[in-house]
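Input (structure):
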């Protein structure tokens, strides 16, 4: 019977494991959103490394179903942003969404704000940088052609006197890739 040795586990876990608190979001938005990129890197409280799934295609073969790899589906990407009293971040995401589809029928936001029906006019790029405990970048994910599909409401309550406001933003994207990493991709 094999013996369990905690030292074997610890030696296999490089640098005592990656920490989920060491990250930075760098988001390049269209000019009309007027997003303060350095401020967002501090105000982005939570996010995730993007995920994807491979769909399944079933094919009949001699009376049996075999499964084949289908299309790759890119999951939505989400960030949670801390709000301050300037509403700079929230305002930037509101401007971005308004430029794509304004709620007022009197305002042609695409014409006024600079977006057009061409996706190239309203998409941005994002980097999610994951840091090691020494302060070095251990993985960078580049997200291509991102645009916000949802800016969540900001909850207000008389009971929430010991908290800072925050809101979520959900993005769609075309694809993502690892642009640098310390280990194998």
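Output (sequence):
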């Amino acid at each position: 019977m094999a013996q369990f040795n905690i030292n074997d586990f610890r030696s296999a876990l490089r640098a005592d494991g990656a920490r989920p608190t060491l990250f930075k979001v760098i988001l390049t938005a269209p000019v009309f959103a007027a997003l303060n990129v350095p401020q967002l890197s501090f105000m982005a409280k939570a996010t995730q490394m993007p995920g994807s799934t491979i769909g399944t295609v079933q094919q009949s073969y001699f009376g049996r179903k075999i499964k084949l790899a289908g299309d790759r589906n890119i999951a939505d990407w989400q960030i949670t942003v801390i709000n301050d009293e300037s509403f700079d971040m929230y305002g930037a995401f509101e401007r971005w969404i308004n430029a794509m589809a304004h709620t007022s029928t009197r305002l042609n936001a695409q014409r006024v704000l600079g977006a057009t029906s061409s996706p190239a006019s309203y998409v941005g790029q994002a980097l999610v940088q994951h840091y090691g405990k020494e302060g070095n970048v251990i993985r960078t994910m580049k997200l291509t052609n991102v645009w916000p599909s949802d800016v969540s409401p900001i909850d207000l309550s008389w009971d929430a006197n010991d908290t800072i406001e925050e809101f979520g933003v959900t993005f769609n994207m075309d694809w993502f890739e690892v642009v640098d990493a310390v280990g194998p991709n």
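Notes: The radius of gyration is 21 Å. The CA atoms of residues 44 and 81 lie 4 Å apart.
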